[in-house]
Structure prediction request, 190 residues.
Amino acid sequence: MSEGTAEDAQASDDVERPASAAGIFGAAWGLAGVCALLFFAVYRLSGMTLNSFAHDLDWRHWTLLVVNTLFMAHAEGYRGFQKGYSPRVVARAQHLMANPVPFRVAVAPLFVMGYFATTRRRLISTYLLTIMIVSLILVFQQLTQPWRGMLDFGVVVGLTWGLVSIAFFAFRAFSGGSFTHSPELPDGTG
Prediction:
């Protein structure tokens, strides 16, 4: 390939192409899948949380509720979702829209969540975080009410924060606003 041809190919990659139907579907499917997963968790945990308020609560329950909710809002909602996960999910959906590979489109929620086609560090983090979340779910299921509901309330707050932040970043990214977050692709292109 001559040098001029390589430059022409690079220039054509920099030109913004209109999104294909497959790309739009992939981005929408990826974001909808992630949001549906989070919404389902919020829905399920909300019932457990509401059930806990039917019990006689004392100062220990209320203290746990307040401290855990503040902790989860900051750690899960703000730091976990808003500062890391949500912009990355949206950036990967945006990348998928511009580069719709059939397999990635088919399993778009897994792609945008970072279960494959990402940096080694992100891949390890994603799988370790998944193992940790599943382990905590198993531990929380062993707790009795109202303790479980007090802890689940904080999780609901964090997950709801996550849903809202994904919607915010998606609106910003797909409405033409400034959005420069990295999709953390393995080849360093993101």
